[in-house]
Amino acid sequence: MIFDVDESIRKRAKTPHELSMVNLVACHLIAAPASIVLDIGFMGFLVPLLLSLSVIAFIWFRSGVETSNGEWFVAAHWRLSANRTRILLVGYAISALILGMAMLATSGNSKGDIMMVAITRVAVVPTLLTVMICFVLESGSIYQAGRGDVPESIVKRMPPPDDLPVLQETVGQNPAN
After folding, report:
1. Domain that holds residue 117
2. Key word Transmembrane present in the record (predicted)?
């Protein structure tokens, strides 16, 4: 639904999506490859992960704060961004599961180090895929926030205030019809 909201409110609604994009770029597309190139070892996976989890925790915290006492349109976009971080967390969980199984399988094996290197490269694939998915979703959400749009799923979970004018119910339909 597209709402008639002020430009300053639209700008504030972009903030959670921009923060999420910074998280994706800084932690996954810059810090993680840099730590691999610098050959930091296992800490090369943990540092970007911990930074990313910190940003995700902040997004969730801010989402709760905005939902309880903020502008509805801004709160809806914080909630949308918080919901999207779950996709990234699923990627982390799948990667952690693959790494954990690899550690169990290679423990006590004389060729465990070589196998761990190979399996580690495979284990990052779910995280990379979810990063790309989140990148596309969040960039689309920045556009949505800029035009005053809130997805139907969020509108159903968080009904807008009655005094907020709706410009367009859904794409291609005029509320006057």
Report:
1. 2-158
2. yes
